[in-house]
# Entry
Amino acid sequence: KQEVTQIPAALSVPEGENLVLNCSFTDSAIYNLQWFRQDPGKGLTSLLLIQSSQREQTSGRLNASLDKSSGRSTLYIAASQPGDSATYLCAVSRLYNFNKFYFGSGTKLNVKP
Amino acid sequence: GAGVSQSPSNKVTEKGKDVELRCDPISGHTALYWYRQSLGQGLEFLIYFQGNSAPDKSGLPSDRFSAERTGGSVSTLTIQRTQQEDSAVYLCASSFIRGGGNTIYFGEGSWLTVV
# Structure
């Protein structure tokens, strides 16, 4: 069974800091990994998708890396802003059932002005 | 439509009553998912539909839960004889399968409170 863990559960940083969110998974036979953002009372918004053959993806101030062999992914946020405050979730899909996603419980980020 | 649409956005129901939650996926998306998120928790997989294939129901927590997808588009999640532990946000998502990746798009959820 695939288990996804996110550490830390919550993070508070001052505006302008660079930060890293961590995601680990137990089964390295993944199809892809996605990072999502969830604002309070809202659904999830996909930020980045990394296919199993890739090592990283970048979008603006966000960079996500993937190390399948160690079962880890990181989401790097550069020059954080108060508007980045949200819960960030990672999800993996399995190699032989790629439509079933396993989610971590998220990291709640607070960027203080 | 422009995004995944869910209704109702909020539902308060009495314990023991049945509820129906509706999801209208993005047009052309062949895969549809239902997840549940309890307060402060991660997402719990419930069920997914892919085209005309038999749905993967492995995440449904009990036989009080059922879902159907009519005409390969709109889906309804039904919870019978609701219990207080059913209180959660029910999130629907859809995706279009393409080579190499399948970004999923979520609706804003149906917030269910059982009193």
Chain A has a mean pLDDT of 93. The interface with chain B takes residues 4, 32, 34, 36, 42-46, 49, 51, 89, 91, 93, 97-106 of chain A (CB under 8 Å). Chain A has no helices and eleven strands.
